[in-house]
Amino acid sequence: MKTLSRREEMRRLGASFRSGKLRVGFVPTMGFLHDGHISLMEEAKKRTDIIVVSIFVNPLQFGPSEDLARYPRDPAGDAAKCRNAGVDYLFTPNVSEMIDEDPLVFAGMSKLTNVLCGVSRPGHFQGVATIVLKLLNVVQPSLLYLGAKDFQQTVVIGQMVRELFLPVKVIVRPTVREKDGLAMSSRNSYLFPEERKAATVLYRAMKLVEAKLKTGERSAELLKAIVLREIGNEPSARLDYAEIVNPATLEPLMRIEKEARLVLAVWIGKTRLIDNLSLKP
Amino acid sequence: MKTLSRREEMRRLGASFRSGKLRVGFVPTMGFLHDGHISLMEEAKKRTDIIVVSIFVNPLQFGPSEDLARYPRDPAGDAAKCRNAGVDYLFTPNVSEMIDEDPLVFAGMSKLTNVLCGVSRPGHFQGVATIVLKLLNVVQPSLLYLGAKDFQQTVVIGQMVRELFLPVKVIVRPTVREKDGLAMSSRNSYLFPEERKAATVLYRAMKLVEAKLKTGERSAELLKAIVLREIGNEPSARLDYAEIVNPATLEPLMRIEKEARLVLAVWIGKTRLIDNLSLKP
Prior knowledge:
Helix content of chain A is 38%, strand content 21%. The first copy, chain A, is built from ten helices and ten strands. Chain A folds into two domains: 172 residues, HUPs (Rossmann fold, 3-Layer(aba) Sandwich), CATH 3.40.50.620; 91 residues, Pantoate--beta-alanine Ligase, Chain: A,domain 2 (2-Layer Sandwich), CATH 3.30.1300.10. The first copy, chain A, is globular. β5 of chain A pairs antiparallel with β5 of chain B, so a sheet runs across the interface.
């Protein structure tokens, strides 16, 4: 595995792979890698000739009151995990390589970015989309691998790729979970032991909804009520939002007539966790 | 010359040229081609292996009260001119090929787009940048040719290409002028004969400024006063703006200490014309 931090070097490599007709699979990350990330690398390993992983804690996607400074980092551990997963190139640019001091240009997006997580994190998805667009132009991959845990992010990036005609295919892979159902996330490292136990409430609530759906319940309002009750019963949990949405447009649904997505964000102490589940009637 | 209107066909061709290491020179236009456009094609002919010209009257860059519906068009004449200029591929997508019915994604830009022409044409440069970004992703050229007449456009696109790390080099070529100095523009076709004569006032004003600069005058205020007076003396002309700006940032200058740009927009009857000149002290 080769580690590189210079943007121009990565771009030259990307261009040479593209003109050499080598299929590059790209896994963009913010580091502090867990099995969810590794599963993306393993999938890329099966389908592509070259795997590029980026580690870049993107300041554009953090709000002023958010956790940029304390976001967990483990460069040495991350490099070892990438090497074990068979990654070919680890791209670790610093901030000034990727973002101008006074950035003027951004990937803008209406509708999809100002709902759900976009409400409590204004500017977040614009920051995500902008950095992903820049990374795609540098790495020039054939396939982009994203994890389903960040569901809204996959919709936003998918829409950007489609609408801007970016020459890359987006592959969304299933969320990887701990044994007790908690979705893997770098932010799980913030949780105190008691909070860690409480954090399973997201998965428990989703599975209760799924079970109720199987009994024939189709009302989004009644299904969401199950989530509210379950989260409400967990003292250290506070609901940010729970919605059942059209998986393409993120618009809230009244009834589940075809495949829908249950999406939720829950504060466990000072840590905000998100999760989602496909609901098939 | 091959004419194609399908986006996917153009994209496949672009990808094959890129992987074949053929240098593509791309000239995006809104059609109704004049010698300014042709000069871009001729320059591309000298420097690249394949020339692609697009003709697309981009609705995103027209305001609701602007001239989209009456924008001049001449598909047959344009095709002949392209063929004569040695163009290899003429890309003429229709609107639905390039723009979703309900577009959600755009290339956003702060500062550079809300000054000069951006004041009287809000949303214009965002529309330009968005369509150029999409066209670049489809055509995948090595070199992008732009005319200097649309100076702010060259700055906006240059900044987008730099900041998003787009794998293309921007080449800005000099404005081509009629014998009497009027910058060539598709919109000149709107001018009535008397207006056509009056339209030379832009060039005359700029040359007066240049002459005054040569005498040692460095005050932007005093140099701009020359433009105001000259435009004021032309009955059918009405000034939109005249500024002397930093050519990279478009910020207005007080004094001309190094290369600056005189930029102006003038209404001649119901037609708005723009022009610009490099000022070297």
